[in-house]
Specification:
Keywords: Cell membrane, G-protein coupled receptor, Membrane, Olfaction, Receptor, Sensory transduction, Transducer, Transmembrane, Transmembrane helix. Its main location: membrane. It is a multi-pass membrane protein. This is Olfactory receptor. This protein is mostly helical and about 300 residues long. It has one domain: Rhopdopsin 7-helix transmembrane proteins (Up-down Bundle). The protein has a three-stranded mixed β-sheet with strand order 2-1-3. Helix 4 runs parallel beside helix 8, helix 4 runs antiparallel to helix 9 and helix 6 packs antiparallel against helix 8. It starts with 10 loop residues before the first strand and ends in a 7-residue tail after the last helix.
């Protein structure tokens, strides 16, 4: 189509597994179960942190932000994907698609920044424990959390809203949800500059926080090695183990989804990997922090009515 005869696109068809009915049923069951685990697990973490005064510390303040973010992140796309699994033609309106794309970008970058802030918190806690309460004051925690949310908004939503997007013709997207690069490929106008800009921004928002996290844990390792007490070293590693595990899962799935070249012969596999990036970290985060964290386990026991908590 050319010029004024172009047909404007008002919706997209998200192919997903619609061509494989049996696989789609299995996928629906897995996704529904995962979403319920995410909602229950992260809501429980939020409630426990609010409920137990022992968890009113910087570490758990940032964890509450992470749990809230994970609920929002999955809720921005999973309900729509579940609905599409039940209909014959899995479609989504243009407005919903763009909103889903912006929300996914925003919350994904916010999680990168929050994980970096949490690494900084652990670095101060272990590297300078005597002044920890002073350096990580409540006011600073609020500022760091707000800075993570606002910076993510400025790096993702603002540039996306300024793009001169015009869609026409082909409206099939071979994914489960609306993702930036797939949407840009459906635009009629030339967006090469914006594609380059968003790729550069994405690399920066992934690599810069990850580099900061590695640097923070390098300092933590140095501080731990200087400790003379084996018990002190064990306690230091224990306080960091949950965060390290979350970082490995988050960046591991992100690299698998977006940095490893995708082959044309394995499109269904690539779609699953991309979907797991949005499901695994939010689903495993509350399990990791509840199973590996003594304070959270004690708060859960207290909530369940066990008086004798060791």
């Amino acid at each position: 189509m050319d010029g004024g005869n172009e047909t404007d696109v008002t919706y997209f068809i998200l192919v997903g597994f619609s061509e494989h009915p049996k696989a789609q049923v299995i996928f629906f069951c897995f996704l529904l179960m995962s979403y319920l685990i995410i909602l229950i697990g992260n809501s429980l973490i939020l409630f426990l942190i609010h409920y137990d005064s022992r968890l009113h510390t910087p570490m758990y303040f940032f964890l509450s932000n992470l749990s809230f973010l994970d609920i929002c992140y999955t809720s921005s796309s999973v309900p729509q994907i579940l609905i599409n699994c039940l209909v014959k033609i899995p479609s989504i309106s243009l407005g919903q698609c763009l909103a889903q794309m912006c929300a996914g970008l925003y919350l994904g970058v916010a999680e990168c920044l929050l994980l970096a802030v949490m690494a900084y918190d652990r670095c101060i806690a272990i590297g300078d424990p005597l002044r920890y309460s002073v350096r990580m004051s409540f006011q600073l925690c609020i500022k760091l959390a707000v800075a993570s949310w606002v910076t993510a908004f400025l790096l993702t939503v603002v540039p996306t809203l300024t793009m001169p997007l015009e869609f026409c013709g082909h409206h099939m997207i071979n994914l489960f949800s609306c993702e930036l690069l797939a949407i840009l490929k459906r635009a009629c106008n030339d967006l090469k500059f914006y594609e380059w800009l968003m790729m550069a921004t994405s690399s920066l928002t992934l690599l810069a926080p990850f580099t900061f996290i590695l640097s923070s844990y390098g300092r933590i390792l140095g501080a731990v090695l200087k400790m003379h007490s084996a018990e002190g070293r064990k306690k230091a590693f224990s306080t960091c183990s949950s965060h390290i595990t979350v970082v490995v899962i988050f960046y591991g799935t992100a690299i698998s989804a977006y940095m490893i070249p995708q082959g044309k012969a394995s499109q269904d596999q690539d779609k699953i990997i991309s979907m797991l990036y949005g499901i695994l970290p939010p689903m495993l985060n509350p399990l990791i922090y509840s199973l590996r964290n003594k304070d959270v386990k004690e708060a859960l026991k207290k909530l369940m009515g066990e008086k004798n908590v060791s």
